[in-house]
Amino acid sequence: MLSHDNLALDPRKLSAGLLLAALNRKARFYAPAEAMVIEHNRLGIAVVTRQGPTITARHLVLTTGYELLDVVPAISHKVVSTWAIATRPQRAKIWPGAAMIWEASDPYLYVRATADGRVICGGEDEDFTDEERRNALTDKKAAQLSKKLERIFPLLDTRAEFAWTGSFGAIGTGLPTIGALPDHPRIHAVMGYGGNGILFSQIASEIVSASIKGAEDTDAGLFAFKA
Beta strands 109-113 and 101-102: pairing type? Predict the structure, then answer.
């Protein structure tokens, strides 16, 4: 299956651009600021920070990645360890269109090219979250990814120049959880489970903004907190 108009982007440049856009719209930033207490009533929200201001607003949006705050209902999820490598810049031309490749298999493998001709290859997921154990497997996983990449593209130099590891969250449906908290209509949460951050970020922006305006996005029920 081939789809078009997907993208890769620089997360640092994207984040900086979004922050600048928010500043131009009169947003205010407080950093570093650790939220200690969330107080809410029918009129609004107050967030008490450690050694900082108490921030008040009509609505609060929680975007804490895979961290479940006490105020957020428990959801059935797991956190998975994953690995990736980047090769040296390739001498020969990358495959046609430099399309991103994602195997519809378990375990899966994904492959994409960078602007400077490197190949990034990732996968080899395992269901555990111990950071030391995860990091200790990086060399072994990098070798396995390099070997799998060579099977797909035997003419490439698949040796890893860089290798890294990280974690992501997942639930059985493969979808994130997005929406107002049950019994707290002024507190919205965007829990990024599902591993497709850019797509689901856009969906979350539409669902949450509609909810704040008192409307309901047509897709809200797919991602809502389940009772």
Answer: antiparallel
Q: DSSP state, 133? A: H
Distance (Å) of CA 106 to CA 1, 103, 112, 126, 210: 17, 8, 18, 11, 36
- Mean pLDDT estimate for the chain: 88
Residue 132 predicted with pLDDT over 70: yes
Give alpha helix (H) positions in the chain.
11-24, 131-136, 138-152, 197-212, 220-223
SS3 content of the chain, % helix, strand, coil (to 5): 25, 30, 45
CA distance 59 to 180: 10
Q: How confident is the model at residue 227 (pLDDT cuts 50, 70, 90)?
A: low
pLDDT of 102-113, one tens digit each? 888 888 899 999
CA separation for the pair 32, 34 (Å, rounded): 7
Residue 134, C-beta contacts closer than 8 angstroms, at least 6 positions apart: 81, 126, 128, 165, 167
Q: By three-state DSSP, how is residue 186 classified?
A: strand
Instruction: Give strand pairing partners of 50.
Output: 34
Residue whose structure tokens are 């602007």: 115
pLDDT in tens, 146-201: 999 999 999 999 999 999 998 888 777 778 889 999 888 999 999 876 666 678 88
DSSP string across 7-24: ----HHHHHHHHHHHHHH
Residue at token pair 């009533």: 41
